[in-house]
Amino acid sequence: MTKKLKWQVFPGRNRFLCNGRIIIAKSLSLFYLTIFLIFTTCALFFIFDCPYMYKHISPAIPVVAIILFLFTISCFFHTAFSDPGIIPRARPDEAAYTEQFIIDQYDGTNKARSRPPPRTKEILINNIPVKIKYCFTCLMFRPPRASHCSVCDNCVDCFDHHCPWVGNCVGRRNYRYFYMFILSFSLLCIYVLACSLTHLILLSKESDLIQACKETPASVAVFLICFISVWSILGLAGFHTFLTAVNLTTNEDLRGTYSRESGVKNPYSGSIIENCLNTLCSSTPIR
Q: Helices 272-280 and 217-246, interaxial angle, to 10°?
């Protein structure tokens, strides 16, 4: 009997491809939409705008666009297909040990009680008390900053959020790729938007704007798609730049875990440079 690999008996809701080397969520409709929009828009730009820009302005314009496109796509697929930091569920013996520990901490007996034992405990991080919670699905106390994703049904280390646009959770192991993706995607959007607009303006000088739009409707489509998309992409990039600078996750920010109202100091935050280096340049944890 052939022994099954771990990914073949994985208890979460993820899909595995390429013999377990690629992990992705099961719901992929927005993931496919993202791929369609990026590839279609850039294909129209390369076919209809780049030849004109190459000839009339500079040969460097298509080269820069290709570099930005390839870097964006690379970061996108790194985010989508990599392990975000899934924490393995407890084995039966580990779960039994943790359960006994909880009971012993509660009253030291196995007798029936009027209320269940508490499922939280506090630990100190940089001399600041941090509360960690017990996960009833994974049967373990989650590490600090970890959270259980309801979409993928996994506890993820340093959980930021589940992003349906990339079809994966964003956590400790792939956050830097996600951040570089939205940053490079913002630059790509602005670059393509500016180039398609320049193309239309130069053509309109030869006749008029309406005639230029009729001559290259693909440039109009590229301009409109980028103009509509760039605001949300820029907003997202700015938001995550702020989170990186203060060493917060989206999950912590939305919950107000370390907000002024909560009165709890963020134990992970240092200077802006330290926070950026810690989030974006630290070594990727080994699985």
A: 110
Cβ-contact 282, 176 below 8 angstroms: no
Give the integer Cα–Cα distance in Å for 39 and 24. Answer: 20
Residues designated as active site: 163
What's this model's pTM, rounded to 2 decimal places?
Answer: 0.90
Determine the angle formed by the axes of helices 175-206 and 29-44, rounding to 10 degrees: 40
Structure confidence by residue, pLDDT tens digits, 166-188: 999 999 999 999 999 999 999 99
- Which pair of tokens denotes residue 260? 């002024």
